[in-house]
């Protein structure tokens, strides 16, 4: 096992996601540059449709249950994070639908406003969520979890990533 804390791994993933959000916001605010940004938009849509959700799985199936030994999972900070996960999934679905419409139509102009609006909402909500996790929730995890519990979380992260990688290979 690595000496890295599981929360450090999640923070690194957050930093990667924030860069993706910067790119997303840049693209959707310049729909006039469609020919230059189509490939990047497809890549971002794929990332936020697949790879990104492994992060939520790691939190929901590994970190949050361990933290749940010290606080209620459905209430307080963990409850808020779980509700926000649901809201972020719904927001992403709306954005994905708008992107699909935009990319599948030659003109795509009717999808520009919903794509931009949904992307902006998704990005704002996700940035706020990441801030709460990085600056509050993960601090609590670092204080509460014993070394053995952190090791368990790290082991589960590896299992989750392996399972997700195997699922991607099957598709």
From TrEMBL:
Residues 6-140 form the Hemerythrin-like domain. Pfam families: Hemerythrin (PF01814). InterPro entries: Hemerythrin-like (IPR012312). One of its GO terms (cellular component) is plasma membrane. PANTHER family: BLL2471 PROTEIN-RELATED, HEMERYTHRIN-LIKE DOMAIN-CONTAINING PROTEIN. This is Hemerythrin HHE cation binding domain protein.
